[in-house]
């Protein structure tokens, strides 16, 4: 009777056409109220010997049927689950991997560094948090001097720790000159008052204090001003400072180096001019303009228009005195150029605030 039941079940399994019929078979024979389950349950009422024999047989049959059911299920399940797992829509558009890149200001900074490094300049960095001494006094801008108004900046509370002073070599390998508090941070003059540097010119002082001429450096970095923001002003921006000192460095050397820089940056047709101007740390002082012409890469500038790009001049004797150089022995030029300005010209950007907005729609264009 048991083996008959077994045959019936196996036949049904064989004929089953889908998962559902297999489940029906399971429920009908092996479920809680299933026929085979009933047989197994009734074993307990049989005498011991018969119970053991019948029990073994029934369990064997149960196992065999479960095995066959499993195989049967596999037949129907495997293809469908595999299909679901490996399903791809070959008509769907591909996912483009996100490729990141450097910020436009960084790209411009690297280009500027590359050009000046090829002309023998080292790249140096100074702290963004400065003392009043380095930002003003050492640059020949004494306390009550009206020129201080040109660099209105943010003053800090005393307990802010200044960033280290860095110098970078040819391959941009960073070497730290001093760590912790910058030189003169705690003791120098009225170095007690801290501020966010209003320009990169303090790096001139820091470098000359620790190095002897002749020297050539550029110092790129972030600066801050306390001003109302508009399309061409922001409370933060980037500058690159330049300084070259030697026995007989002249305005002619300055012109030559700058001309070369502009040629390499904007293209060979670029024209520049120097205009007299005033900065307390230079004498004479200039402003440097460039002229647009067809072949230059300057885009948002009208034909024949001069555009102011930087302040510059011959280092003032008082600046040399402040760093312990004898102004009779040394002379040189310095300049400070807006990196944002360069980037805006090169990429035809009309609003400086876009650089700091973090807006990917803007950044992705470079
Ligand atoms: N530090 C000046 C500014 O931010 C720019 C400048 C002018 C830098 C003349 C110089 C210089 O080195 O010689 O307005």
Automatic annotation (TrEMBL):
Compartments where found: Cytoplasm
GO MF assignments: ATP binding; magnesium ion binding; phenylalanine-tRNA ligase activity; tRNA binding
A Pfam family matched in the record: tRNA-synt_2d
Single GO BP term: phenylalanyl-tRNA aminoacylation
UniProt cofactor(s): Mg(2+)
Cofactor: how bound: Binds 2 magnesium ions per tetramer.
UniProt GO cellular component terms: cytoplasm
E.C. numbers: 6.1.1.20
Chief subcellular location: cytoplasm
Keyword Magnesium among UniProt keywords: yes
Keyword Transmembrane appears in the UniProt entry: no
Recorded catalytic activity of this chain's protein: tRNA(Phe) + L-phenylalanine + ATP = L-phenylalanyl-tRNA(Phe) + AMP + diphosphate + H(+)
Annotated positions binding Mg(2+): 283
Residue intervals of the Aminoacyl-transfer RNA synthetases class-II family profile domain: 106-365
Keywords: Aminoacyl-tRNA synthetase, ATP-binding, Cytoplasm, Ligase, Magnesium, Metal-binding, Nucleotide-binding, Protein biosynthesis
Annotated family: Belongs to the class-II aminoacyl-tRNA synthetase family. Phe-tRNA synthetase alpha subunit type 1 subfamily.
Subunit (UniProt): Tetramer of two alpha and two beta subunits.
Record's protein name: Phenylalanine--tRNA ligase alpha subunit
